[in-house]
Amino acid sequence: MPELPEVEALRAFLDAHLVGKEIARVLPVAISVLKTYDPPLGTVEGAEVTAVGRHGKYLDLTTTGTAGDLHLLIHLARTGWLRWQDPLPSGPPKPGRGPLALRAALTGGDGFDLTEFGTTKRLSVHLVHDPREVPGVARLGPDPLAEDFCPEEFAALLAGERRQIKGALRDQRLIAGIGNAYSDEILHAARMSPFKPTGNLTPEETAALYAAMRATLREAVERSRGLAAGKLKSEKKSGLRVHGRTGAPCPVCGDTVREVSFSDSSLQYCPTCQTGGRTLADRRLSRLLK
Question: How far apart are CA 235 and CA 106, in angstroms?
Fold first, then answer.
């Protein structure tokens, strides 16, 4: 799933390739992709892309045309991706069972495709006057890399929580942009169990978690800076220390990276670095084995 660092890299890539260009057409291919109908998607035809922003995991393409400023909001969900093409294939895309969900063509002949693999279709596109019209954007918590997101605000957010820290980091209403992969990476950097209750955090642990979060995300953004959209997935995988590396040695201590599996996801951690050498039981709502 694309998370904050990859979406931020896509934002920078699109900012360099889209801003100042005119949209020729936007064609939804999958029925499920378009979540709004007013204003109609055709309203952006002939409009100029004037900015590319990000809200958590949402991309925000600002367009200016005869209807004024509109925002094309894109959420790639778990298996979605953006593929830049120069030039785009000639002729309209054909609906079918393939991964193509939407095509955006520019008047210069280039543009991008949105693709989504798998049977669960959650990739979404909204065309709105204000990004806050999208419920997922309106509910977002603060951006963890925002300049004004200070340690005190982070501590205040966690102070009101009564749950495991892994779930708190992934909650977009609490903090925007962190998903399964980077929550594992942040907790590994902070040397903290994913099942530690937020209510048990000391001020020193909260400060360490804040520092690990900012450093981990900033390093991931920096690694992705300047890469073409097609290379971002491989860069993400190559930079991860524990997530997706079950059975591999921890790059910090050499212990074996372990996994806890759930019905629709899994987490990875290092027992030596994070749980005092103890192994987490591999079941939902796991507790440390004695």
Answer: 28
Q: Record the pTM.
A: 0.92
DSSP string, 12-78: HHHHHHHTTPBEEEEEE-STTTB---SS-GGGGTTPEEEEEEEETTEEEEEEEETTEEEEEEEE-TT
Rounded to whole angstroms, how far apart are CA atoms 214 and 212?
6
**How far is Cα 151 from Cα 214, in angstroms, rounded to an integer?**
10
Concatenated DSSP letters of 8-30: HHHHHHHHHHHTTPBEEEEEE-S
Token readout for 53 is 């922003």
Token output for 205? 């642990």
DSSP state of 122: -
Give every strand in the sheet of 23-28, ordered side by side.
Answer: 23-28, 100-106, 111-116, 80-85
Question: pLDDT digits over 154-175, tens only?
Answer: 999 999 899 999 999 999 999 9
How many other C-beta atoms can be found within 10 angstroms of the C-beta atom of residue 237?
Answer: 12
Closest CA to 34 of 1, 73, 64, 66: 73
